[in-house]
Design goal:
This protein has 10 helices and 12 strands. It is of the alpha/beta class. It has 2 domains: 105 residues, Rossmann fold (3-Layer(aba) Sandwich), CATH 3.40.50; 186 residues, NAD(P)-binding Rossmann-like Domain (Rossmann fold, 3-Layer(aba) Sandwich), CATH 3.40.50. It has a 7-stranded parallel β-sheet with strand order 8-7-6-9-10-11-12. Strands 2-1-3-4-5 form a 5-stranded parallel β-sheet, covered by helices on one side. Helix 5 links the parallel strand 6 and strand 7. Helix 3 crosses helix 5. The longest helix has 19 residues. It starts with a strand and ends in a 15-residue tail after the last helix. Bound molecules: NADPH dihydro-nicotinamide-adenine-dinucleotide phosphate and oxalic acid.
């Protein structure tokens, strides 16, 4: 009985070593090397090549090495076994750090001061909005969105959230569904996007959504932070809104094509911050432990946790 590691873009040896230490009795095999396909009971995947998980007759479960699972559902030859995703405090904390950092960059006008420093300019117009006067809207109130919302509230931001199903979260203003989206956007100065990529959410960050954001807020116009998935955003609409000034800035961690191609306008746009899909990296130390615990659970006849629903796509 073996665990197959199937990943692209990550250092597989780090994962192999970590899994082997956690599961010493289980052979850890790697896609691309010779292995016995009949012995594979478990797969841990991050962006495995489409079709590469066929012909595994004893496969019992697939583990996403990340919180997102859209890359799994993009494989039309994916075996129909239960799929579990990562829910882990290490990953959640990393994402909240990213969200808080970039909300503060906008609140405290840090990009302006970095520019001023490069120009040797000592300039202060005494216009420093309080966090409580800035409305942050968190799209997605799952594991990541809820934690980020709570930490933004600790800083003092005026936070609301939006999700598919209605939510009652202590102290948080919530909106849900298509019917709640307009009101949610209308009270949003900084939009933080943490929804999964599904057929319902593909392209959701488009011209219409951006036009619905608050224009008269304390930051002088709306900002976008997308750490969900690149497929959520329509790149041309974001660039057009930035150029028109209806969007004041965007921090983007995720892109339709990754690595971001050299000719993407995002690289050079003065009001865009690009990070290389690392807002909440899956750290082998933490994430392999979560998956090893899941395997032990299955081996003990206990149910798998954090199973995703293929019908919903997350
Ligand atoms: P969860 O599944 O816990 O939460 C997803 C949230 O999105 C839920 O609140 C869900 O609503 C909401 N949602 C889903 N579809 C819709 C919709 N159509 N309309 C409105 N709301 C919707 O996911 P996580 O919080 O753990 O992760 C979110 C995403 O973050 C991942 O899918 C992944 O794409 C991304 N991510 C990015 C990382 C990075 O490094 N950039 C790292 C980790 C994750 P409901 O509560 O009603 O179900
Ligand atoms: C994830 C990611 O889904 O890293 O965890 O994007």
């Amino acid at each position: 009985m073996s665990l197959l590691l199937a990943m692209t873009g990550w250092h597989v040896e780090d994962w192999r070593a970590r899994f082997q230490a956690l599961l010493p009795e289980m052979p850890i095999v790697v896609l691309g090397e010779p292995f016995d396909r009949r012995a594979v009971h478990y797969v841990a995947s991050w962006k495995h090549p489409v079709g590469s998980l066929t012909g595994l007759p004893n496969l019992a479960a697939i583990f996403s090495l990340g919180a997102g699972v859209d890359f799994l559902f993009a494989d039309d030859k994916l075996p129909t076994v239960p799929i579990a995703r990562v829910v882990d405090p290490d990953l959640t904390t990393r994402m909240s750090e990213y969200v808080v950092l970039h909300c503060l960059m906008y609140l405290r006008q840090q990009y302006r001061y970095l520019r001023q420093q490069r120009e040797g300019l000592w300039e202060d117009d005494r216009n420093q909005p309080a966090a409580r006067s800035v409305r942050v809207g968190v799209m997605g109130l799952g594991e990541l969105g809820r934690d980020a919302a709570r930490k933004l509230q600790v800083i003092g931001f005026d936070v609301a959230g939006w999700s598919r199903s209605p939510k009652a979260i202590d102290g948080l203003t919530t909106f849900s569904g298509e019917e709640g989206l307009k009101a949610f956007l209308a009270r949003t100065d900084i939009l933080v996007c943490l929804v999964p990529l599904t057929p319902d959410t593909r392209g959701i960050i488009n011209a219409e959504l951006i036009a619905g954001l608050a224009q008269g807020g304390r930051l002088g116009g709306p900002f976008l932070i997308n750490a969900g998935r690149g497929g959520l955003q329509v790149a041309a609409d974001i660039v057009a809104a930035l150029d028109a000034g209806t969007l004041r800035g965007a921090t983007l961690d995720v892109f339709e094509t990754e690595p971001l191609p050299p000719d993407s306008p995002f690289w050079r746009h003065p009001n865009v911050t690009v990070t290389p899909h690392n807002s909440a990296m899956s750290e082998p130390e933490a994430i392999a432990s979560v998956i090893a615990a899941q395997i032990r659970r299955l081996e003990a006849g206990e149910p798998l946790q954090n199973v995703v629903d293929p019908a919903r796509g997350y």
